[in-house]
Design a protein that fits this description.
Elements (H helix, E strand, L loop, with lengths): L28 H7 L40 H13 L4 E5 L2 H9 L7 E5 L4 H11 L5 E5 L4 H7 L4 E7 L11 H10 L3 E5 L4 H4 L9 E5 L13 E5 L2 H14 L5 H12 L1 H21 L3 E5 L9 H7 L6 E6 L3 H10 L4 E2 L9 E3 L20 E5 L5 H16 L1
Parallel strand pairs: 2-3, 2-4, 4-5, 5-6, 10-11
Antiparallel strand pairs: 1-7, 6-7, 8-9, 9-12, 11-12
Helix pairs in contact: 1-2, 2-9, 3-4, 10-13, 12-13
The chain binds pyridoxal-5'-phosphate.
The site of pyridoxal-5'-phosphate has 16 residues, from helix 3 and helix 4.
């Protein structure tokens, strides 16, 4: 650890991406989730990293210390988290932040006034607000473009374009962007590719192995996984980018507290088993929705009819736990469905053990109502949780039966 708050240096070098790791290529994803950065404490033998609340660390002589001076710059619980998550993304460097947006903000600080960024036309609302309302007035311009169409991306490219920002699967349409192709397009033109890997998680998708320069996460979602901690993360294999982001982590100070680091680390240990079940439960829900007469359309990359299906099958290990669908009878019926489920909780956010249901047009995506990015008012978004699948199906289909009458 350095005083500028680096991290992830302990990640095993040359770890293969989980989705591609052949037998014998080093520890597998689940092993790294449980052990990377989490060796038993050498002093006490404790099998999990302690929650190190100390803000400052004793120095033997001026500048002579054990790697930690002050907890904004570096903290042992944070190092454990950063090492583990970097290992899960298959890279050497990881930096943890107090929220997903703080992590995104640290990346945007790499830009300078006059620079331009290409963002998805269905970007996460908070990402759009940060780029448009915070960085726009400071001289960073952006163009929203449908990143599924790489000709459109090439067409929107300007000499001052520095970054392409990808979310795949996207929210709430669950459209898929070709990470490999987007990375080569960005690199040919001297730009960089950032992938928000929140929806897929490192278990289902490894953007750095596909050519992305930086991965960003809201660890609030699947990585934490239990609706009890807000956090963010940046992963990269590029040591210079890592140094720059680490500089902003320390200089700006959007760091997570040690208890938050512990909670995200605890969540990460079970990420693989949770994601397998999120995917299986989502598939059961999708099968029910496709057959239900009150539903006119189901958006899920696992469906052969989804425009991104083949691409998702290529670049993801599974299709994820997020599902959107359109209620045929329109907005009033969709509002009735989200109101009347009892097991599915009506709430924003996603990625935790509890199943959630929401109405994007009026909730998560209300800020784009009336714009070309407006979400279908009949659309319902699900974050499929880990309850018994038959219970989830029974509750949702009963709500749809009522809406269909
Ligand atoms: C939630 C979310 C964010 C923002 O993360 P916070 O932890 O809420 O700051 C960014 N991107 C995506 C895709 C998200 O779902």
């Amino acid at each position: 650890m350095t005083g500028t708050g680096g991290g992830g240096a302990g990640a095993p070098a040359g770890v293969s991406p989980a989705a591609a790791s052949p037998p014998g290529a080093g520890p597998g994803f689940e092993t790294r989730a449980i052990h990377a950065g989490q060796e038993p404490d050498p002093v006490t033998g404790a099998v999990i990293p302690p929650i190190s609340l100390a803000t400052t660390f004793a120095q033997e002589a001026v500048g002579k210390h054990q790697g930690y001076e002050y907890s904004r710059s570096g903290n042992p619980t944070r190092t454990a988290l950063e090492t583990c998550l970097a290992s899960l993304e298959g890279c050497a460097h990881g930096l943890a932040f107090s929220s997903g947006l703080a992590a995104e903000d640290a990346i945007l600080r790499l830009l300078r006034p006059g620079d331009h960024i290409l963002i998805p036309d269905d970007a996460y609302g908070g990402t759009f607000r940060l780029i448009d309302k915070v960085w726009g007035p400071l001289g960073i311009s952006h163009t929203s473009v449908g990143l599924g169409d790489l000709d459109a991306v090439a067409g929107a490219w300007r000499p001052e374009t520095r970054l392409v920002w990808v979310e795949t699967p996207s929210n709430p349409a669950l459209s898929i962007v070709d990470i490999l192709a987007a990375a080569s397009l960005a690199h040919e033109r001297g730009g960089r590719l950032v992938v928000d890997n929140t929806f897929a998680t490192p278990y289902l998708q490894q953007p750095l192995a596909l050519g992305a320069d930086l991965v960003v996460h809201s660890t609030t979602k699947y990585l934490g996984g239990h609706s009890d901690v807000v956090g963010g993360f940046v992963a990269t294999d590029d040591p210079e980018l890592a140094d720059e982001v680490a500089f902003y982590q320390n200089a700006v100070g959007g760091v997570p507290g040690p208890l938050d680091c512990y909670l995200v680390l605890r969540g990460a240990k079970t990420l693989a088993v949770r994601m397998d079940r999120h995917c299986a439960n989502a598939e059961a829900v999708v099968e029910m929705l496709v057959a239900h007469p009150a539903v006119s359309r189901v958006l899920y990359p696992g469906l052969a009819s989804h425009p991104g299906h083949d691409l998702a099958a290529r670049q993801m290990r599974g299709f994820g736990g997020m599902v959107s669908f359109v209620v045929a009878a329109g907005e009033a019926a969709a509002l009735e469905v989200v109101r009347s489920t009892t097991l599915w909780t009506l709430a924003e956010s996603l990625g935790a053990v509890e199943s959630l249901i929401e109405h994007p047009h009026r909730m998560t995506h209300s800020s784009v109502a009336g714009s070309p990015l407006e979400v279908d008012p009949g659309l319902v978004r699900l974050s499929v949780g880990l309850e018994t699948a038959s219970d989830l199906l029974a509750d949702l289909s009963a709500a749809l039966d009522r809406a269909g009458n």
